[in-house]
Design a protein that fits this description.
By secondary structure, this protein is an alpha+beta fold. It has 2 domains: 155 residues, Aminopeptidase (3-Layer(aba) Sandwich); 160 residues, Aminopeptidase, CATH 3.40.630. The chain contains 12 helices and 13 strands. Strands 1, 2, 3, 4, 5, 6, 7, 8, 9, 10, 11, 12 and 13 form a 13-stranded mixed beta sheet that branches. Strand 3 and strand 4 form a beta hairpin. The longest helix is centred in the first third of the chain and has 17 residues. The two termini are 39 Å apart. This is FemAB family PEP-CTERM system-associated protein. Belongs to the FemABX family. One of its GO terms (molecular function) is aminoacyltransferase activity.
């Protein structure tokens, strides 16, 4: 191979260490880019992954992880990446990005996928400009820059927020870090909350696989009251960034402020262990979840996604931008299902909802 020649290949299991090293050293990477996300989805849901790896001078110069979500004849999508906000192409330069994006277009053609969906911003370049439409989702990510100590972070909060954090402890709610053995109790909280929100729940197997595959880069936190688990959250880490894909509490106990205790302990851990950023995930500006995340000091960053041109997804509203009325009708119907039934069939539906 000539010097500076870029080659593209599909990464295999032996490439995992090199892949993860590249992710951990890339400034725009998220925990979802790590190989563990691939392993968890493949094991829990069986979706086919194609992780494209670019090399220059025998070193990785870019990656593009892709999953095919296929349920013939209804669904055939390529997504980078499913079940998260940001999991797009990472590259050292625009030339590498172009080659990865062009290979993704070929993969779309070869798999006869109707959609190629990328989550995260791209560097303006030939392939990005010609093959993809830039989609402003109307959502934002809320990112908090962390100080070096939790005490400094706590001192930065307004007095009202500090009081809310203390309220949970005064009410007798306790926080502890959980383990895989706690997954049943945590999942009960998660499944019940998702049912009340009117949304199909991820499978317990998927959450268990995420915790297992990420190993020490994943932690599960629990809020307990009188020995009962009333809140849960899972955080994932790179070397400098924490993301929180899931957090739930039992609504009947929300007056005790378990959610405040959960998030404070996640932020406390992040600050005291040298992490620089805390990613609260996506929200719509002005809505309740946005205000909750903003009160901790998080700042909004527009969430930009891309779709390949000439796909049905560009001729109709995106699922995340569907009409409020349609979402409410579906949610209301799902809430009417018995919890046990919703929990049993929910994962079979959820695995094909790429968000």
């Amino acid at each position: 191979m000539a010097d500076n020649e870029i080659t593209i290949k599909t990464a295999q299991e032996p490439d995992k260490p090199q892949w993860d090293t590249y992710i951990l050293n890339h400034p725009n990477a998220t925990p979802y880019h790590l190989w563990a996300w691939k392993q968890a989805i493949e094991t829990a849901y069986g979706h086919r992954a194609t992780y494209l790896l670019a090399q220059k001078n025998n070193n990785i110069s870019g990656v593009l992880p892709l999953f095919q979500l296929r349920l013939a004849p209804f669904i055939n999508q390529l997504v980078s990446l499913p079940y998260c906000d940001v999991g797009n192409c990472l590259a050292d330069d625009s030339a590498t990005q172009d080659m990865l994006l062009n290979q993704a277009i070929r993969l779309k053609h070869n798999t006869k996928s109707t959609t190629l969906h990328l989550r995260g911003d791209l560097t303006p370049a030939a392939a990005a400009d010609h093959h993809f439409n830039r989609i402003n989702t109307g959502k934002v990510r809320l990112i908090l820059n962390l100080p070096s100590t939790s005490q400094a972070l706590f001192n930065s909060f307004k007095s009202k927020l500090r009081s809310q954090v203390r309220k949970a402890e005064k009410n007798g709610v306790q926080f502890r870090w959980g383990h895989l053995a706690d997954i049943d109790a945590a999942y009960h909280v998660f499944a019940k909350n998702m049912h009340e929100l009117g949304s199909p729940v991820h499978s317990k197997t998927f959450l268990r696989e995420v915790l297992s595959r990420f190993s020490n880069r994943a932690k599960i936190g629990l809020a307990e009251y009188n020995g009962k688990t009333i809140g849960m959250g899972i955080i994932l880490a790179t070397d400098n960034k924490i993301s929180i894909p899931w957090a739930s509490t039992l609504r009947v106990y929300n007056r005790l402020a378990p959610n405040m205790l959960l998030y404070w302990n996640f932020l406390k851990f992040s600050s005291d262990n040298g992490f620089q950023l805390f990613d609260f995930g996506r929200s719509t500006m002005g809505e309740g979840t946005y205000k909750f995340k903003q009160q901790w000091g998080a700042k909004p960053i527009p969430l930009i996604w891309y779709d390949a041109v000439n796909t049905p997804s560009n001729k109709a509203p995106h699922p995340q931008n569907g009409t409020h009325a349609n979402r409410e009708h579906l949610s209301a119907a799902w809430r009417k299902l018995p919890l046990t039934l919703a929990t049993r069939i929910g994962p079979q539906v959820r695995k094909y909802i790429n968000l």
